[in-house]
Amino acid sequence: MASTGGSGGLAPSKSTVYVSNFPFSLTNNDLHKIFEKYGKVVKVTIVKDKVTHQSKGVAFVLFLERESAYRTIAALNNTQMFGRTIKCSIAKDNGRTTEFIRRKEYKDKSHCYECGEEGHLSYACPKNLLGNRDPPPKKKKKNKYDE
């Protein structure tokens, strides 16, 4: 019995790229900017140490379309990025996919979740090596009277 688990109909096991050996200093937004060249990125999840919250140089990049994931692998696997040879492959489904697909709600928007400092959000964090990224457009709430 298959469950979509809140993935919105995506096939995450077919459209998620496992990326390893990238520099620990790259942020979620940096990876978003790198990978959006190959297709619509739905979500980037950087694996971090549970105690120090530092990147382990490993991430999962979920694309909207499977073709984008394969294009990314063809273009970036075994290439040099910031002096490191990165590896890219289709992620293996370990049954925990739905944990990572769910959209996180950041209720406290008084500080950045990348660096923890106040005064900016992660989209404009000074730690983003590749510069700022535009936040996604806000979804319009549907009015039951709209047709």
From TrEMBL:
One Pfam family in the UniProt entry: RRM_1
Superkingdom field: Eukaryota
An individual GO BP term: mRNA splicing, via spliceosome
Localization, UniProt: Nucleus
Keywords, alphabetical: Metal-binding, mRNA processing, mRNA splicing, Nucleus, RNA-binding, Spliceosome, Zinc, Zinc-finger
Keyword Nucleus attributed: yes
PROSITE patterns linked: RRM, ZF_CCHC
Transmembrane segments: none
Residues in CCHC-type domain copies: 112-127
Name of the molecule in the record: Zinc finger CCHC-type and RNA-binding motif-containing protein 1
Source organism of this protein record: Lottia gigantea (Giant owl limpet)
Lineage, uppermost ranks: Eukaryota, Metazoa, Spiralia, Lophotrochozoa, Mollusca
